[in-house]
């Protein structure tokens, strides 16, 4: 096998030196019913359908679900094939119906999808959960099309088990550059403040997110997973819908973004992933997160708009070892 040659500034995670012993030490498989204590801060390397029945009842505060979309996609050599809506719906129902048991009565669930699978996810989710909103987020990257609109958005369905749920709107406000920096009669800034990066205002979060950057090769969070979610995107779900110490569960963990982000934000996590390769990525990222709590675009407990000075500062910072007990 020829080794990949990376550009000097390429920070993509390299797992080529991680063997099966590393995987064995850093992941588990379930063969019998298992208690929440044993599952805390673990990654399970197994087919979801083979371990689901061994997970306990009502132990999850926040479930973040990023399933394969209804598209042709290869995950670690395993092809997921696009199918008709009805077949995809049956597949979604086959796991969502069984995941509900794991949720606490005041739990929240977020389910990721694209425009083609959004209606199917809504229809299945509304059978088991209360739908509260649909977040649409802009993907900067994406191929242009000659005969269609370029696809550069994705959806996330925001659902809760019941009427009682946790939502911290203050924690997820967005810091935006001020276009018209008005001052009051005394000349003091009205609702904005002067930062090193410019004039900014903290604004109410909406369900349309244009502040997200997809991981790319010069970002430390980047891996070779084909559909890796940005840590900032997941951080917004976590800080708005969970408290420190809560249990975050991701049944389609991939490269581990939700577990890593949960760890950086002082939450507990559990992830399930069928691929050994992706579990190695997740485990390596989790080890790195012990010393590096940075989340690009989230600093001083605030989410910054895309390409703001603060986001760049975080991206360029090489200091990965400094412990900050929070985010930078
Ligand atoms: C959309 S990706 C998740 C990406 C993830 N959010 C990240 O940031 O890396 C879906 C993942 O589900 C995994 N998967 C598919 N079927 C599975 C199954 N039956 N059990 C466990 N994992 C599965 C795939 O290998 C893939 O990594």
Automatic annotation (TrEMBL):
InterPro entries: DNA_methylase_N4/N6 (IPR002941), DNA_methylase_N6_adenine_CS (IPR002052), RM_Methyltransferase (IPR001091), SAM-dependent_MTases_sf (IPR029063). It holds the Pfam family N6_N4_Mtase. Keywords: Methyltransferase, Transferase. GO terms for biological process: methylation. One of its GO terms (molecular function) is N-methyltransferase activity. The keyword Transferase applies. PROSITE patterns: N6_MTASE (PS00092). Belongs to the N(4)/N(6)-methyltransferase family. This is Methyltransferase. The lineage of its organism: Bacteria, Thermotogati, Deinococcota, Deinococci, Deinococcales.
